[in-house]
Design brief:
- This protein has 2 domains: about 140 residues, Alpha-Beta Plaits, CATH 3.30.70; about 40 residues.
- Helices cover about 30% and strands about 15% of the residues.
- By secondary structure, the chain is α+β, with helices and mostly antiparallel strands.
- A 4-stranded antiparallel sheet has the order 2-3-1-6.
- A hairpin with a 6-residue loop joins strand 2 and strand 3.
- Helix 5 packs antiparallel against helix 6.
- This is U11/U12 small nuclear ribonucleoprotein 35 kDa protein.
- It is found in: Nucleus.
- InterPro entries: Nucleotide-bd_a/b_plait_sf, RBD_domain_sf, RRM_dom, U1_U11-U12_snRNP_70-35kDa.
- Pfam families: RRM_1.
Length: about 210
């Protein structure tokens, strides 16, 4: 058992303890059917990058650099803007010179106040978490309780420990199914990366 998702499975992250076998909202089905591919135009090293959300509308890349440069040298900052209005969408990314610095910013930068807003900091999921599906397609993490579409396994809403944990055999079967599932319409490099991560986890569990 792990409180954080190591592979993004829409069905599992829709469950408070990661044990659901049936989707409980339509968005989960939408995420399961999504043919999402990470944006190849995104620059930088995902291992050295952090995701910063809940930004004040007036927060700029300069503000991000001023705040997060205390952790170490920054390569680039980016606040994501709406393509039509040009306004901030409330989140951005900071890429550091090293993964060690990014990890420090992840650990110590969460809940920092920037322009009066308490920000949420996480590692970049799109390119690091196999199977990732963004919120707009029914995936993502967290969510609002009143929406009925909470997502677990992330930093803010980790999985709760289930009453009955999967046995070693059941866990191996579950991961094997994920490994052997057809990877339709996914880029070859993404499929290879996801498969290697799942295979590594299988090997780790098998050797315990």
């Amino acid at each position: 058992w792990c409180p954080r998702a190591i592979i993004y499975d829409p069905l599992k992250v829709g469950s408070i303890d990661g044990t659901d076998f049936q989707p409980h909202d339509r968005a989960i089905i939408r995420a399961q059917n999504a043919d999402y591919k990470p944006n190849k135009k995104v620059k930088g090293d995902p291992e050295c990058s952090i995701f910063v959300a809940r930004l004040h509308p007036k927060t700029t890349e300069r503000h991000l650099k001023e705040v997060f440069s205390r952790f170490g040298e920054i390569v680039r900052c980016r606040v994501v803007e709406d393509l039509v209005t040009g306004r901030s969408r409330g989140y951005g990314f900071v890429e550091f010179k090293s993964s060690t610095t990014a990890l420090m910013a992840y650990k110590r930068g969460n809940k920092t106040i920037i322009n009066g807003s308490e920000v949420f900091v996480d590692m970049e999921c799109e390119r690091l978490l196999p199977g990732w599906v963004p919120r707009r397609l029914g995936g993502g993490f967290n969510g609002k309780k009143e929406s009925g579409q909470l997502r677990f396994g992330g930093r803010e809403r980790p999985f709760r420990k289930p009453i009955k944990l999967l046995s070693k055999k059941e866990l191996i079967i579950s991961l094997s199914d994920k490994l052997n599932k057809p990877k339709l319409n996914k880029p070859k490099d993404q499929v290879l990366k996801e498969s290697s991560l799942i295979a590594a986890k299988l090997s780790e569990i098998s050797n315990k």
